[in-house]
Amino acid sequence: MKVAVQSEDFDLNLELSRMRAARNDIGAIVSFIGLVRDLNDGAAVTQLTLEHYPGMTEKALLAIVKEASSRWDVLDATLIHRVGTLQAAEQIVLVAVCSAHREHAFLACEFMMDYLKTQAPFWKKELTENGEHWLDDKASDHDALGRWKTNDL
Amino acid sequence: MKIKIFYFARLKETLKFSSEDLELPEAELSLIKLKGVLAKRSEVWQKMLLGNLKVRGAINHELVDDHALIVDGDEVAFFPPVTGG
Hints:
Chain A has four helices and nine strands. Chain A has helices at residues 12-20, 56-71, 102-119, 139-146; strands at 2-6, 28-35, 39-40, 43-52, 76-82, 84-87, 91-99, 122-128, 131-134. With 85 residues, chain B is of the alpha+beta class.
């Protein structure tokens, strides 16, 4: 299992190769990558700055991986979240889950993203043509978490 | 008790505080009571901690609700709802 909070970009193929190395029991890998979109609420986004809570963030990410592993048969998982200033089209987050069967990999991957959206201490500040502003949390993200019957603080 | 408090995102920017060490006469205090103590500092603090903005709290790196108790040596953090991913 790997979690990382970093300013550098990540390489999906590198992470998948690492997880697959020296094992033959993986039957399915599901991965998700979140990107910086160039448009949000109708305004052109030039850059995004991600702030986080050092110390708590790593623990929250580990808790997410642990919780997913307790619910599904997860053989290995990687969760990488970038921080700092990112430009449109850049990669923000990677979730990759290895399992014996696809169902567990799909569900665990989706769960980890839903959980991360509302429970991990990251905050986005957007720079658009209209200036700079902090993003608000979305009701749809809290609804998504509700599907998994998890406490949402 | 002595505690450490961190502020993040909009709270940090508006309050112009990223962290502080605070000594309080109480032996324990709920998160909402601590917000009350801090809100007395000025109108800005009042508005940011007890206004319309949703403020979430963490004690020792765990997300908690307003009734969670803070004790000596705790690391407390206040921040807006998270928006990662």
